[in-house]
Amino acid sequence: MSDSPLSTEFLKTVSHGPGVYQMLGRTEVLYVGKARDLRKRLAQYAHFSGPPHSKTAVMLSHVRRVETILTTTEKEALILEASLIKKHRPRYNVILRDDKNYPLIKVTVKEEWPRIVVTRKRVRDGSKYFGPFSSPSAMRQTLKLLYTLFPLRRCRTVRSRSRPCLNFQMGRCLAPCTDQVDQDSYRDMVRQVLLILEGKNQEVLIRLEEKMREAAADLAFEKAAVLRDQIRALKKTVERQMVVANHFLDQDVFGLARRDASVTIAILFIRGGVLGGSQTFFLADPMGDDQAILAQTITQYYSARRQPPREILLPLALEDAPIINEYLAELRQGPVSLAVPRRGRRMQLMEMAHANARQVFADKSKKKKAWETLAASLQKLLHLNRRPETIWCVDISNLGGKQAVGSLVCFVRGEKHPPGYRHFKIRCKDEPDDYTMMHEVLERRLGRGGKKAICPTSCCSTAARVSST
């Protein structure tokens, strides 16, 4: 049809070169894609003959116009596609809901007196970065161990002082600011910190044991006792670590599982041969085959702030692997290997990642059953006509009735729903009265912020409006 956004007349105007196309509805971007040949790719949509209930057919039924952006190379198209997806978050693209950057441990090796810093941003400043740590508790345990074994400075800058700070008095700093430690000894500690973060704990243990024996031979028993305690703490940490590879490579291992239209992706973080954590994503109804979904996930997941490791293991080969490889190598400023293992230890890692991806479906099923049981129980106990779908929880906080605020959190089908959270300044009371304050919060929330809320004590004449967090 001539009025179709993908009409023959329109396709004749589209270039055969590489670029990005955007499928647009009435007001929003529905889908963003890239192509080596834009006209050929859009022609495939124009002649799509799949079932009318398929996701592609449904998406095309909502398309009102198509926009294209030409690029010089396929890599530029790949980068632009990832940028536009992050900007517009189109309904039919793969969207990683949990796109936060996990924390990294940074060792400022370029400074005169290096220190250990926690950061979420990787900057090209010559420092050594380790992570990401998907588990904050695991990262805190690592930091606690490092601070205990190697009391490096914690202050932002080193300036000359007449007396050391409290950290030195507590044995938590070597006080380079008052020349309490020489440069060589300090640098040796920094090297041991780097070895531990690289997973080379056995080398550190050997060095500490040698120093302990030397201290004992010199009758420096207090120093030997300190080294003994460091060795014990490090050995406990080594026992807890799960070594999954016999090398010191940094790897990310992607696992993918599908159940009907839904897809789950699990990523295992392996640093120095040790499993450091994992992250999972649930994609309810992504468009495209597994290969396209995995490719979009990779290009969205990695960025200048979240750089790829030396090796990435994948469950299947990607059609655009050379371009994606080039893009990732540019982010890392070093070589990146995309591998699809078939046997050996790497294949065992793939199976582990696949099992983690499948577990997401099991966890969601378990949560769903738990919610259905709880909802049925609430319906019975509260004598409701139907099972509840949404639950609000209200809490009041005040200082003797003054500066009172009300907080409301929201759960939908047993899952927290942050868009439903609200925060209110209480206006009707200036003395402790939680029930009246909760009445005000609920009335204002149910009033949807656009209607006057009548104060239950008739002490407030102004219109109360919802104050969103």
From TrEMBL:
Molecular function GO terms recorded: excinuclease ABC activity
Ranges of residues in domain GIY-YIG: 16-94
Residue ranges of domain UVR in the record: 202-237
Gene3D superfamilies to which the protein is assigned, alphabetical: GIY-YIG endonuclease, UVR domain, UvrC, RNAse H endonuclease domain
SUPFAM superfamilies assigned: C-terminal UvrC-binding domain of UvrB, GIY-YIG endonuclease
Biological processes per GO annotation: nucleotide-excision repair; SOS response
Gene Ontology CC annotations of this record: excinuclease repair complex
Chain ranges of the UvrC family homology region profile domain: 253-448
Keyword DNA damage: yes
Key words, A-Z: Cytoplasm, DNA damage, DNA excision, DNA repair, Excision nuclease, SOS response
Family matches, as InterPro entries: GIY-YIG_endonuc, GIY-YIG_endonuc_sf, GIY-YIG_UvrC_Cho, UVR_dom, UVR_dom_sf, UvrABC_protein_C, UvrC, UvrC_RNase_H_dom
SMART domains on file: GIYc
Protein name: Excinuclease ABC subunit C
